[in-house]
Amino acid sequence: MQTQATTASPYYLGIHSLADLATRGDRVCVLNILGGESRQVTPTSHAFSGGNVVFGTSPGRSGQSLKTPVGNIPVFNNVREGLDAGHSFNTGVVYLPPSGVRDGVAELIRVNPDLKKVVIITEKISVHDAREIRAMAQQRGVDIIGGNCLGVADSWSRTRIGGALGGDHPDEALVQGTVAIFSNSGGFTSTIAQYLSTEGWGTTTLVSSGKDVYIHYAARDFAHAFRNDGRSRAAVLYAEPGGYYEHDIDFGKPVVACVVGRWKSKLTRAVGHAGAMAGSGDRAEDKERWFMDAFGVDGLYTPENPIVSRKGAVVSNIAHIPVALTAVMKLNGAKPDFAPRGSLALKPWMANDQGITLPDALALKPVTAPAPYAEQIADIGAQVGAVIARQNMKDRSGASVMDSKTQVTSVHGRSVLELALEPLQANFSLPLVHEVAGPNERALLDIAVAAEVNLVGDPILVAADAARDGGNSPNTVMAAAVAIVGPRRVQRTLACSRALIELFAGSGLKDGNDEGFDFSQLKVDAAVRELFMAGPEEADDPRPEAMLQAVQQRGAKSVFLRFVQSLGGRPSRDALLAAIATTIAWGPLVRKRISRLTAETLPWYLRLYGVMVGASIPGEQHQAGSLCGISREERFGKWTMADLCFLAITGKKPTEDESRPLQMLIGLLVSNGPGSISAQGAKGAVAADGPQTPGRVQINKAMAGFLTHTGYSHGGNGFEGMAFLLKQFKDSGLTDPTDASHGIDLKAMAAAFAKSYKTDKRAAKELGTETPALPGVHHPVFKGKPVNHDPRERFIASYMAKRGDYNIFHAYYLELVQALHATGATPYVFCVNVDAVIAALLLALLWKDYKAGALTERDLEAAAFTVFLYGRMIGAAAEIDDHLNRGRNMDTRTPEASCSFVM
């Protein structure tokens, strides 16, 4: 047994001075040198320290080596092999898994009599193993540092042993000075060193003690070596709750102690570092008091309340360490080691306020970053739009998400309940600009879509009518139409969109509505000008003039429309569509809310919106200059998206009272998240084309993918609720579903059905058959309470109540669920789900036309399906654009291992 190196300690302590902790003379052996963490860290440590690692071990990899900037490090199966090969070392570094640390340290001690120090990087070593490691080390006279640490470093000798103190560039963080650092946190060890330089303080030795339950080289051991180190004039200690390592210590020199973790005393289990769990008398508050007593101060140091003594100061914010140290050392007559380097004031290299007006204290101006970052930031600043990383997008989405508790889906952060209250144009723009469009953008969107709805003389209408005549469902009719709106049909408008973005990219334009913006400096060559002008084949197309007239009539503003008009000549409809789309997209684009790809493809989506709505209208209603008898001028200059959608469903313009429920219906139907069948159809089509080469992705085909993935079950089943209500109100004499004074006894009506349903249910049970489910009643998530509610239905009901709106069909559903429970047909009061609200709202819209004979039940079914499609085309656009920006080729495939064959 070796003799004790110092009489100041009741146990063996070989490190007499901090100057001995990490020296250029130390030779190092690294256990598990080829492990993931060591591969990243050891080469930097080895190079910084002048090549101090002599070899490493990795069982089964003998003969391999670890490449470093200053030469390769040989690897052996075990420590004995390395020693037998002629290598010698005095320090071991352990990167082994927790279960292997004890045996690894035992091997180091057993086979190497020259071993003096072991640095354990591994965290979460069991207390049992830590005690055995301690016993073995004490018996053989070996100092242990760690575990769960980032090693030790010395700024004077330019040495780093184990871990990543100083990061990837230790020469920048480890600046020679007179301050020693001892820290429970490895990351903060480096951070504190960097912070100290802002007050002109450099470092001597840095010790990352770790914070497992068992700390081998603790604060008392550090204090002993600190007192004996002539280089170190002061020290900084960073301490966390847990343990009594810092209690009653005489450091002998000035110290600034930073104690963190007051919040941890409120926890019942450990978080972060394993040992940082509040115990009895070792909370953060307790440790603060230990240091205050040691330093003779009566409070925490803050810049506003600088409490210090010659012995030291206590802080709870690492940002206060440098100034606290300067204050302490001033009382000791000592000055910093060098001139301050930088400051801890926030110095943003980039700023993006997203268009929000911030108070001066928050509106920080960017500073020029040091090389080479300034050049890289300049390149990023020149980019237009967001840059989005690609990833596997199977069953994932960056556009939509469903809350599993509420069953409410959000699209770009806006719930469908919120969207149900927004104007319809705002919903149609949200998927593509990630923001709710303002009045100006909504007006422009109305014009753009209106210009695409009338399909007279277009092969699209021929295809749609042929599909309709074939007896196809509404989604199939739409799919036939969008199939024709391929890349060549939008080639010119997309080229115009790209040209506009390219021209204005570096112009400083922030708002596409800024008609006062001076674009006279933009250089437009003959080819670009020709791109925007209408050709001879468009001479008979009246839409460009009608679109510009509508913009003026609505008072809409667009710098891009003004620019196109300034070129002279007659602009094409493609150019105007691109100018409108760029106006809508420009704000989100420069704020980097959307990508350039999204902005450039926006005209394609707008054209598809118009085509899909137009394809819903039978061909005979499309006439030159009019649609369903509505003139072009009226539609372009006054109509909204809600008006157009209502026209497609009913053949007439809605009143304000009719427009609002339609808006709510479509908003509620926008999305059910990326897991819905319709969303998967859209995403799969993008994945099949290959989003990694986005120019090849056919957006119209992706929209067709959504359409072909809807059907009578997913999409058309909205009619089931209406069919149920039609049956219940068949002989009721109802004339106006929105009149609360209807005179119908809903309670009696519901009770009668509930009794009949209970009888049918009992009979079905006796026969071993199933009773058909009631549409709009019950939900698998919202159940089990005495009275159950679907929060989506409650949201809409609350909104209607505040407005004083009434819907008899919704009121009937509320009576029905009560009656079903009262008669014993259901075990509790089932919820009225959101499908019932949709059926009630839609049937109320169409009731008068149905009762007048203008609509048949077949028409009602088609209307229910079409409304669903209008909502989901918005959600599909969001998924298509998201997958186009984020996805990888064919990433929606299911792996073969997850597929099965069914006999």
What does this structure look like?
There is one protein chain. The chain contains 32 helices and 20 strands. The strands form 4 sheets. The chain has a 7-stranded mixed beta sheet with strand order 3-4-2-1-5-6-7. Helix 8 links the parallel strand 13 and strand 14 (312-315). The chain has 903 residues and is of the alpha/beta class. InterPro entries: Citrate_synthase_sf, CoA-bd, NAD(P)-bd_dom_sf, Succ_CoA_lig_flav_dom, Succinyl-CoA_synth-like.
Largest sheet: 7 strands, mixed
How much helical structure, as a percent, in the residues? 40-55%
- Strand percentage lies at 5-15%
Uncertain runs are 1-7, 267-279
Give the beta-strand count.
Answer: 20
Strand order of the largest sheet: 3-4-2-1-5-6-7
Separation, N- and C-terminal Cα atoms: 74 Å
Total helix count? 32
* Radius of gyration, taken over Cα atoms and rounded to an integer in Å: 37 Å
The dominant shape is: elongated
Mean pLDDT: 92
Q: Which structural class do the helices and strands define?
A: alpha/beta
Short description:
Pfam families: CoA_binding, Succ_CoA_lig. The chain has 32 helices and 20 strands. It is an alpha/beta fold.
Features:
903 residues; alpha/beta; 7-stranded mixed sheet; elongated
Helix/strand layout:
Blueprint: E1 28-31, H1 36-48, E2 53-57, E3 65-66, E4 73-76, H2 79-84, E5 91-94, H3 98-111, E6 117-120, H4 127-140, E7 143-145, E8 152-154, E9 159-161, H5 170-173, E10 176-183, H6 186-197, E11 203-208, H7 219-227, E12 234-239, E13 255-259, H8 284-295, E14 312-315, H9 321-331, H10 373-382, E15 400-402, E16 409-411, E17 414-415, H11 416-419, H12 424-433, H13 439-453, H14 459-469, H15 474-482, H16 487-504, H17 526-532, H18 543-554, H19 559-566, H20 573-590, H21 596-615, E18 622-623, E19 626-627, E20 630-631, H22 632-638, H23 641-650, H24 656-668, H25 677-689, H26 699-708, H27 718-728, H28 746-767, H29 791-803, H30 808-822, H31 834-851, H32 857-886
Parallel strand pairs: 1-2, 1-5, 2-4, 5-6, 6-7, 10-11, 10-12, 12-13, 13-14
Antiparallel strand pairs: 3-4, 8-9, 8-11, 15-16, 16-17, 18-19, 19-20
Helix pairs in contact: 3-4, 12-32, 13-18, 13-20, 13-21, 13-22, 14-15, 15-21, 15-26, 16-20, 16-21, 18-22, 19-20, 20-21, 21-32, 23-24, 24-31, 24-32, 25-26, 25-32, 26-32, 27-31, 27-32, 28-30, 30-31, 31-32
Domain CoA-binding: 50-123
Organism: Variovorax robiniae
Domain Succinyl-CoA synthetase-like flavodoxin: 176-282
